[in-house]
Specification:
The complex is a heterodimer of chains A (880) and B (143). Chain A has 880 residues and is an alpha/beta fold. In chain A, 64% of the residues lie in helices and 6% in strands. Among the domains of chain A are: 58 residues; 86 residues, no CATH class; 202 residues, no CATH class; 91 residues, no CATH class; 72 residues, no CATH class; 100 residues, no CATH class. The radius of gyration of chain A is 45 Å and the shape is elongated. Chain B has 143 residues and is an alpha+beta fold. In chain B, 28% of the residues lie in helices and 31% in strands. The longest helix of chain B is centred in the first third of the chain and has 25 residues. The chains are: A alpha/beta (880), B alpha+beta (143). Chains A and B meet through α10, β11, β12 and α30 of A and β4, α3, β5, β6 and β7 of B.
Chain lengths: 880, 143
């Protein structure tokens, strides 16, 4: 019998027995169940054995990558200042600013159009900060901005690159000009009444190295601060106007003396960061619609400050100082005890550069406030740095993981492959896993290099000899575990979910490409609860994306994928990125904004001049401490909101595959951008105002010098002016009014009363005391005085005559009987009535129109009239 | 709807309260009002301390107001926080642009303080340059 026939016959017999015998049926069911359980158990054993082998493989890999990841022998980028490395950094930073725009015109003999945009902007926006202001630089024969800087630094290429690096990294300029703003001396090359060599205004290589390190140390909120424009080296031991070695100006400059520049790295960082923190304080304050954080009620209340001030009425001078109810030991140093602003600035500096002292001294609520408001909860003590670097690696992993797996999946599971993913992933030593494992060390190595190149302390942190070495070890250990877990998780997913993992990779890639968390953050910028809004938007988008794959992904795995994808876009990271990116995005537009601000200023000045407009409050640009014509000020403020955004097109252009791609801001992005640009524009306006004010003051001075003779001449020949001159007070007022006709036709930054005080009064004094004029005035005054005096004299004569007549009537001397007595009485009566006549005369004089000009002469007039008594009395007595 | 009504009511109430306070302060006149009259208007002060400038003179301190009082118990100066539109120095410069004023730096550190003195009106405006803000307005007896 053939075997197949044998099986078929016996199978038919078995089925017949199964139908007829219950016992056989039961035995069969148990048999099948036993087989199935055995199979399941075997499968589980096989599966478990494969997980273990992955752990083992990973452990093997660990030992390999540890040696690679160790940076004991790694070169520390901060110490050797390798010019090539610096050039590479500069080049990478330059690329990040490329918007596809170009600038017209030429500077230093260079066509700006041919330069990378950020270089063109660096030159165009700061041409008055680059070079000896007493020299022309048109024949430098340079092809780029760095060559110009190199020429200025007498061939020192490292200095040129270090200087430019600061600009790219921070957005402010290390001045190369020999003109120091906000100083008494306006002439370039002179400071503190002394002439200085041009080179003494330039930061030298050692100083620039400190700035380079500082740029790497500054937290994000200190970089690209729109209110900070430039840092100037003062060729002196002290800065004019302060006892300290550095100073900030209202128009966005930091002035720093040689003393500060000579500090150790740590003290230098603190000193400069203290000055920058002034701008950070104001910038953050404006975000909450306050003048600054330190002057906000919230800060004053939190740090228990109150101001003690007294007005010295006799001297008309205000004296004040700040006191805090906070215990003395809660302040970091004596400077911070001086005012809320100094306290805040000190705290910001110490938070970054002396976190241990900050933590030890600062009360918990203030600590949290500073951390939240200014540092996005990042801290800079050893533990904080450890956490920051760990977070960075985790973030970098979440960004790179997808590509890393995709590359390996593409390599080992081609699209047209008939082999399933689960099949490939079923073996622990599958080529796919080997590919991923191989990529891990290079990922870690490049991540650490990146951290080191961007963070000053990272170099020390990853140096095993450093005091944080136990944290460094912990860092590697935690990162190892983290990467182990992450890779293992994916491996298990691949083994368990097979093609679902591939699909999830595909979804993630599409999602990553299609969603921009920055966009969500920007769209939620004006919302009350930004975080909630952001999370809602991300969740909605995730649900939307995943719903398209509902039939292909199991609900369980779909949930896993969703959680995974959420990690790609955290709120804090997105906020930080949005701020950083927006600042970077907008930085190349600063020269355009500057250009627009200049144009707005010109436009506003061209409007019809009026002295009578009222200031429209509130003002984004206030004019600071200077007087600004109200119409001009209103116009400038209206330009901030409307015109500037239409003048400056915030559209970036990039070239991709020889095709131009444009990036145009949406309205909500523009709103977000506006919060940065408004500060920048007000800073540009402030600088412009300083320049304009100086220019106008010089012009006004010239105007009065050149027209002084003409004005005096006009007064001398203008007879009508002297028609009515009653007193010097009156002629001074009249003169001021008359002189104001000779004032410049437009003056924007001085009020008329200021011009009166500065020029008008002096001119009038010159005019009035001019021999010819004073003679004329005296003649006129005497004429009117005599006229005015005659009113009193006439009245005196008239009244006295009347009173005398009455006396004569009352005491007739014709009566012989009483003749001698009446004569005596009449004399007394006449003598006494003179006083009454005098009173009448003065009364009449006071009613005269000219009295207001001569009222000060009343006593003199009284004495003069009294002196006439004898003559008048004698005259009356001599007549009957 | 309820929350809107509540909001409007709160705004109106706070506006009324602040206006009332401004109105009360306006009734105190430097050189004329006695301190007991001022206390009647403003309620009890939080603190009374001796003037560091002149012996016998005192400072009466409220949260938003400080009064300088001479030995005859007459209020000689009223220190007040500026209200919204008074925070900008430009407001004061323009409001008194036709009157003789002096604008002088009074302190360089820790704040850069300036004072705009308007003697004919008996007003002294204190301005902090570092934060671009009027921090105090002082009323005293005009010349």
């Amino acid at each position: 019998m053939k075997p197949i026939k044998f099986i078929r016959v016996h199978f038919k017999l078995y089925l017949r027995l199964l139908r007829n015998s219950q016992k056989v049926a039961l035995t069969s069911v148990f048999g099948v169940m036993l087989i199935m359980l055995t199979a399941l158990f075997s499968y589980h054993v096989i599966m478990n054995s494969s997980q273990k082998s992955t752990f083992t493989k990973w452990d093997e890999f660990q030992s390999g990558y540890r040696s690679i990841a160790s940076v004991d022998s790694a070169q520390c980028e901060f110490e050797d200042f390798d010019l090539n490395k610096l050039k590479q950094e500069v080049s990478e930073l330059e690329k990040s600013f490329e918007t596809g725009h170009s600038l017209e015109g030429s500077l230093y003999g260079l066509s700006l159009k041919k330069l990378p945009f950020i270089q063109a902007q660096f030159l165009a926006d700061n041409y008055n900060l680059i070079g000896n202001q007493n020299k022309s630089y048109n024949s430098l024969n340079c092809k780029d901005a760095l060559c110009i800087l190199k020429s200025i630094y007498s061939g020192d290429e490292l200095a040129a690159n270090l200087n430019y690096y600061w600009y790219l990294k921070t957005g402010s300029v290390l001045s190369l000009s020999n003109h120091i703003p906000a100083q008494k001396e306006k002439k370039p090359g002179r400071y503190n009444e002394q002439s200085h060599e041009y080179s003494s205004y330039l930061f030298n290589q050692d100083e620039l190295k400190k700035f380079y390190l500082l740029a790497k140390s500054l937290p994000t909120s200190f970089l690209h601060t729109p209110l900070l424009k430039s840092i100037h080296k003062v060729p002196s031991q002290r800065v004019e106007g302060t006892k300290d070695c550095s100073l900030t100006t209202n128009s966005g400059e930091i002035l720093i003396s040689e003393v500060c520049l000579g500090f150790s790295n740590e003290d230098f960082f603190k000193s400069i960061a203290f000055q920058i923190s002034n701008f950070v304080d104001i910038e953050k304050g404006r975000e909450i619609k306050k003048h600054s954080i330190s002057s906000s009620e919230d800060w004053i209340y939190k740090s228990l400050w109150y101001e003690k001030g007294i007005f010295d009425i006799s001297k008309k001078k205000y004296l004040s100082y700040w006191k805090s109810f906070m215990p003395k030991e809660s302040f970091i140093n004596s400077i911070s005890r001086q005012s809320p602003k100094n306290q805040l600035q000190t705290l910001l500096v110490q938070y970054r550069f002396n976190p241990a002292l900050f933590g030890q001294k600062t009360p918990e609520d203030i600590k949290n406030y500073i951390s939240n408001t200014f540092f996005q909860n990042k801290s800079y003590d050893s533990n904080g740095l450890y956490k920051q670097y760990l977070d960075k690696v985790i973030t970098m992993w979440s960004q790179d993981e997808l590509k890393l797996w995709s590359d390996c999946l593409d390599e080992h599971i081609p699209q047209d492959s008939s082999v399933s993913a689960r099949e490939i992933a079923s073996k622990a030593d599958s080529p796919l896993f080997r590919c991923v494992d191989k990529k891990i060390p290079s990922f870690l190595s490049s991540s650490i290099s990146k951290i080191k190149s961007e963070n000053y302390e990272a170099c020390g942190f990853f140096n095993s000899g450093y005091k944080t070495s136990h944290l460094t070890k912990k860092f590697y250990s935690v990162v190892d575990k983290f990467l182990q877990e992450q890779v293992l998780k994916r491996k298990i997913e691949l083994q368990n979910h097979g093609n679902e993992v591939l699909l999830a990779q595909h979804i993630k890639e599409r999602f990553k490409k299609s969603i921009d968390p920055i966009n969500y953050y920007v769209n939620c910028f004006n919302k009350d609860d930004q975080r909630k809004c952001f999370d809602q938007k991300v969740n909605r988008k995730l649900d939307n994306v995943l719903s398209k794959y509902k039939s292909k992904l199991s609900p369980y795995y779909s949930k896993l994928v969703k959680n995974d994808m959420k990690k790609l876009f955290s709120y804090n990271e997105s906020m930080s990125k949005a701020n950083e990116l927006t600042k970077k995005y907008l930085a190349p537009f600063y020269s355009k904004v500057s250009f627009a601000a200049h144009n707005s200023w010109k436009y506003c000045k061209k409007q019809s001049f009026s002295k009578d407009a009222k200031v429209s409050l509130p003002l984004k640009f206030s004019g600071g401490k200077h007087f600004v014509n109200a119409k001009l000020l209103n116009c400038l403020n209206s330009q901030i909101d409307s015109q500037i955004f239409s003048i400056v097109d915030f559209t970036a252009q990039k070239t991709l595959d020889e095709q131009s791609v444009s990036f145009e801001l949406t309205s909500s992005e523009k709103d977000f951008a506006q919060s940065f640009m408004t500060n920048r524009i007000t800073q540009i306006y402030s600088s412009l105002l300083e320049q304009e004010l100086t220019f106008e003051k010089e012009k006004t001075k010239e105007h009065f010098i050149s027209s002084k003779e003409k004005i005096i001449e006009d007064f001398l020949t203008n007879e009508s002016f002297f028609d009515e001159v009653y007193s010097f007070n009156q002629i001074t007022t009249d003169c001021l009014e008359k002189v104001s006709e000779f004032y410049p036709s437009k003056f924007f930054y001085q009020s008329e009363s200021q011009l009166d005080a500065q020029y008008g009064k002096g001119l009038c004094n010159t005019i009035i005391t001019h021999p010819k004029v004073s003679q004329k005035i005296n003649d006129k005054i005497n004429y009117y005085w005599n006229e005015n005096k005659s009113v009193a004299q006439d009245q005196l004569s008239e009244s006295f005559a009347d009173y005398s007549e009455d006396c004569k009537d009352d005491y007739p001397v014709s009566d012989k009987h009483y003749s001698s007595r009446n004569k005596r009485m009449r004399t007394i009566c006449i003598q006494e009535s003179f006083q009454m006549a005098l009173d009448d005369a003065l009364e009449e004089w006071r009613d005269d129109d000219l009295y207001e000009h001569f009222y000060q002469r009343e006593q003199m007039l009284g004495r003069e009239l009294a002196s006439l008594k004898n003559a008048h009395v004698q005259k009356e007595l001599s007549t009957n | 709807m309820k929350s809107v009504s509540f909001l409007i009511f709160t705004i109106l109430l706070s506006t009324f309260t602040s206006c009332t306070r401004q109105y009360k302060v306006a009734k105190i006149i430097a050189g004329k009002t006695y301190i007991d009259e001022a206390v009647d208007i403003l309620d009890e002060p939080q603190m009374v301390e001796q003037s560091p400038v002149k012996a016998g003179n005192n400072l009466y301190v409220w949260e938003d107001i400080t009064l300088q009082v001479n030995s005859q118990d007459v209020v000689t100066a009223i220190h007040k926080q500026p209200i919204e539109h008074e925070l900008t120095l430009q407001f004061w410069k323009h409001h008194y642009k036709e009157i003789q004023t002096t604008f002088t730096k009074i302190q360089s550190s820790p704040s850069i303080l300036w004072q705009l003195n308007i003697p004919s009106k008996g007003i002294n405006v204190i301005y902090d340059e570092r934060v671009d803000k009027v921090t105090k307005v002082i009323f005293y007896e005009a010349n």
